[in-house]
Design goal:
By secondary structure, this protein is α+β, with helices and mostly antiparallel strands. The chain is built from 19 helices and 33 strands. Strands 1, 9, 10, 11, 12, 14, 15, 16, 17 and 20 form a 10-stranded antiparallel beta sheet that branches. It has a 5-stranded antiparallel beta sheet with strand order 8-7-13-19-18, with no helix packed on it. The mean pLDDT is about 95.
Length: about 775
């Protein structure tokens, strides 16, 4: 059974009623972020029940020593950890001498809401403390999108059955540890603790990586909305924590509140982090709580104006897509090319690292279409900046001459993933990075990226594939041995179709661009050829490998084979697998999974997704029907690709089911693991399943093409696309599609192959 406690609502995620069993799941689902930092929805006040404390700062990490039983040559030395950052939200509370703790109090009318439209998180409840005092509590928290090093908490308490002495004890604390530390060690070393007036600062440095962060707070106390101008009665400080004490007497029915400004300034951005923190506090105070809240609402209004998808007639589907879009925008704003999109964003620590191939395969299309092209260019620049490390990674594995292997998981370009069957074998990730360069040019029309930066990346990747393939005299073809394809339920296989196909494509694409840059960008070509020592003889070797690549094929089933030997498996379809055995990754041994035909996520079909125009619709149908029947979809990245392809094949019921699964993966906790954090990168796939799946959007020959379809459960849906700095709005209904354009230029789009001219200030109905 999936969880279903989240109330359906088109703009909010809402939980009603307090249940200690759900606390960790809700901490993930109600997480907030602003691109620069984020935090799980931990309670501000002390909570003695089960909780997973997590605050995170973008770009701050720690190289945790790899923990393996048997060290293999070439292993990464460390596994990069997303670090739990010092805590600035904490406010311990005492009422008439008793601590407020929802684990020991009697709680009623508990409600929390993540308002996605306006970008804030709110919690309210009534509690009876052990001493009999009854209180009503309202807390609102948000992380400023504009002043993005700061966040704000407004915490209100109203005594309901008697007068109360309320003691607020706000603190900042660097004495934090990670939920997932390999060796139980601390990751932060406190450097300085300062406080003056209502402000406190804890400056700490990460071990090894030496990032410095100042965690700060500024507080003021109000009674019935009036500032009490209180100074802290006491300030307790040790070498990693500062806690202030403020007492206020509230009569029955009066509301006492604390407004706390907090956040982080880091050495990535500032020479002196404490001076920077002072300035942030000054800027926040100059605006005040109400203005900060209004600016937050305005910032989110602007984000939604471009990235919203509306769905009419299906509240759960609408809530699902908005939750996904909201989390993507909380995780990555596109302002900083040093940052990327981690698989858990700011919602948890699992998987470590900040970057997987998910960014290139799934996230770039979302950011290209809903922001300006600069954001997508920043994501590509991130990989260009790490090219030297990719060459170094390949060198550690014995590759030469500038061959580049991009890491499976990384923070700074070094490989930091340590399961050998993925680290050394899941090399198709190299292909996704080259594909993203192609996809960026196809969508934006901005070729300048390739001569400036992209061609060097393509050359490094092509060199890797040429060296990784070897000639089989038996097959009279080039083969690629010992790999793991996108389907991680098979390791160390030979001739994975997707890997071989994308390897050939990468080499061909590099050759095509070398030719183009040489003839049209002579200056860039001269610089690149000097830097890479590329020769005609080398290019001929590449071409020979690409032209003679082997692709396993089954004449019997008339499909490409996922890899050599796939048909040797006992081909029992998922429909015939006992339900009690699912999910197999929690019920079966790894040995049994590896021998089974079961597929974790799109593999052959990932190739059909990327290179749809290389195959006929009939080929897609045959491969889809064959492989989907063996796919257990136990990867968050699986349902979106299948949803898009089901829509292409007019299997609309199936497309809709996959869409719901991808859009509500976390809200309904399909994989029973949401308490570890949300699946951020797969959320971009949810966006694709509507825009590319139901909307049928493709870019062909510099134009947008659509083949709109609509699930029978919906009355209509709409989305916007920023295509080459022109904003197109598409609204699909059961029997018509409407197009309109912002701005003063016309745009020709194609609908089911027919040209449609969309002019400014007019609505075109097809």
């Amino acid at each position: 059974m999936n969880q279903d406690y989240i109330k359906p609502d088109v703009w909010s995620v809402i939980e009603e009623g307090f249940d200690a069993e759900r606390v960790k799941s809700s901490e993930s689902l109600f997480s907030i972020g602003n691109g620069a930092m984020g935090q799980r929805a931990n309670f501000e006040e002390h909570y003695s029940g089960e909780t997973f404390q997590g605050s995170y700062i973008a770009g701050i990490y720690y190289p945790d020593k790899t923990k393996v039983g048997w060290w293999k040559n070439g292993y990464p030395e460390y596994f990069a950890k997303v670090l739990n950052a010092p805590n600035w939200i904490g406010i311990n509370i005492e009422i008439n001498g008793d601590n407020l703790d929802l684990h020991t109090a009697k709680v009623k009318n508990f409600r929390r809401e993540l308002n996605m439209k306006e970008g804030w998180y709110h919690r309210s409840f009534e509690a009876t403390l052990p001493n009999g005092t009854e209180i009503s509590v309202n807390v609102r928290r948000f992380l400023c999108m504009d002043l993005d090093e700061s966040g704000v908490i407004n915490y209100e308490i109203t005594p309901m059955n008697q007068d109360a002495k309320i003691v607020f004890k706000p603190y900042v604390d660097a004495g934090v540890s990670n939920e997932d530390a390999n060796w139980e060690e601390k990751f932060w070393e406190p450097l300085a603790v300062n406080h003056s007036g209502n402000r406190a600062f804890v400056t700490a440095r990460t071990f090894k990586t030496h990032f410095i962060a100042t965690t700060f707070m500024q507080n003021h106390i109000l009674l019935d909305g009036k500032n009490q101008n209180l100074s802290p009665e006491t300030a307790h400080a040790n070498d990693e924590k500062v806690q202030f004490t403020y007492s206020v007497s509230a009569q029955k029915g009066q509301t006492a509140s604390i407004q706390k400004i907090g956040g982080y300034t880091v050495s990535l951005n500032h020479e002196n982090t404490q001076t920077a923190a002072e300035k942030i506090i000054d800027a926040a105070l100059a605006k005040g709580y109400e203005q900060l809240l209004q600016e937050q609402i305005a910032a989110w209004s602007k984000i939604w104006d471009m990235s919203d998808i509306t769905i009419d007639g299906d509240v759960k589907a609408q809530q699902g897509i908005r939750f996904n879009i909201f989390q993507l925008n909380q995780t990555y704003s596109g302002k900083d090319s040093r940052l990327n999109i981690g698989p858990k964003g700011f919602t948890g620590e699992k998987y470590g690292g900040s970057t997987y191939w998910d960014t290139e395969a799934y996230c770039i299309p979302f950011y290209m279409a809903t922001k300006d092209q600069e954001v997508a260019r920043n994501l590509l620049t991130y990989r260009y900046n790490q090219l030297d490390k990719a060459i170094e990674n390949a060198g550690k594995l014995g590759f030469k001459n500038g061959a580049a292997l991009y890491p499976m998981v990384t923070m700074n370009g070094e490989e930091c993933h340590n399961e050998w069957e993925i680290t050394f074998e899941e090399i198709h990730r190299n292909g996704a990075i080259a594909f993203a360069i192609y996809n960026y040019f196809r969508f934006t029309g901005d070729y300048s990226y390739i001569p400036e930066k992209g061609l060097e990346v393509l050359i490094g990747i092509a060199r890797f594939w040429q060296q990784r393939a070897n000639f089989s005299t038996d097959k009279n073809k080039y083969v690629i041995l010992g790999v793991t394809g996108p389907n991680e339920y098979e390791n160390n296989v030979n001739n994975n179709f997707y890997t071989n196909y994308i390897a050939k494509w990468c080499i061909d694409y590099a050759l095509e661009n070398i030719k183009k840059v040489a003839s049209e960008y002579a200056g860039d070509y001269s610089r690149i050829s000097k830097k890479t020592n590329i020769t005609d003889a080398e290019l001929q070797v590449w071409k020979k490998v690409a032209d003679n690549m082997y692709f396993p094929f089954s004449e019997e089933h008339n499909v490409y084979l996922q890899q050599d030997g796939f048909l040797d498996k006992e081909l029992v379809r998922v429909a015939d697998l006992d339900r009690s055995q699912r999910p197999i990754n929690q019920k079966w041994s790894w040995d049994r999974i590896l021998r089974s035909p079961y597929i974790k996520q799109a593999d052959v079909l990932q190739g059909f997704y990327f290179f749809e125009d290389h195959f006929t619709k009939e080929e897609l149908r045959r491969n889809f029907e064959f492989y989907e029947s063996f796919t257990v979809h136990e990867s968050s990245l699986s349902p979106c690709v299948h949803s898009i392809q089901a829509a292409v094949l007019d299997k609309m019921d199936m497309a809709y089911t996959f869409y719901l699964r991808t859009s509500r993966l976390d809200l309904d906790d399909y994989n029973k693991e949401v308490e570890e954090g949300c699946h951020i990168t797969s959320m971009a796939g949810t966006w694709m399943s509507i825009v590319e799946g139901f909307g049928g959007m493709r870019v062909k020959e510099n134009a947008l093409h659509f083949a709109p379809k609509i699930p029978k459960e919906w009355d209509g849906y709409s989305f916007k696309i920023n295509f080459r700095n022109q904003i197109l709005k598409v609204a699909v209904h059961q029997n018509e599609t409407k197009f309109s354009i912002d701005g003063d230029k016309e745009l020709t789009v194609y609908v089911n192959g027919n040209a449609v001219l969309v002019e400014p200030n007019s609505l075109v109905t097809v």
